[in-house]
Design goal:
The protein is mainly alpha-helical. It has two helices and four strands; from the N terminus they run H-E-E-E-E-H. The radius of gyration is 21 Å and the shape is elongated.
């Protein structure tokens, strides 16, 4: 199960041009996947439109990614190689997820530590 990631950079604020570029790339990806007897899993497809934090223009809602007409809504949080990203690349979601996981681990250690004999504690 391999993941395909598409990164498209644009220096234009014209959303129609950007969406046309993305659709063109996706069309060619679908063609390549079909030619190589692979399958694009619609349920695992995620789209994230990255903006800078000062860009207040709304992200487009439905993006037609599949030839069967299924639209995919842009997501607000995505995980890539263990790192959580948001549309402004602020890293806040990643830091929050790390803190949440470490707090859970500390809680588990505290609970386990209460049951250990004193000779095993440092």
């Amino acid at each position: 199960d391999d993941d395909t990631q598409l990164y498209v950079s644009s220096d234009t604020l014209n959303q129609t041009k950007v969406m046309d570029d993305i659709q063109w790339c996706l069309l060619h990806i679908r063609w390549w996947i079909k030619e190589n007897f692979l399958k694009l899993k619609a349920g695992k497809t995620e789209v994230m439109i990255l903006n800078n934090k000062w860009d207040i223009s709304p992200n487009p809602s439905g993006i037609a990614l599949h030839p069967d007409g299924e639209d995919v809504e842009p997501c607000m949080l995505a995980r890539n190689l263990g790192v959580w990203f948001d549309p402004t690349l602020s890293m806040s979601p990643n830091v929050s997820k790390i803190i949440q996981a470490r707090c859970l681990q500390l809680s588990d250690l505290w609970r386990i530590g209460k049951r250990l004999p004193k000779v095993l504690k440092i």
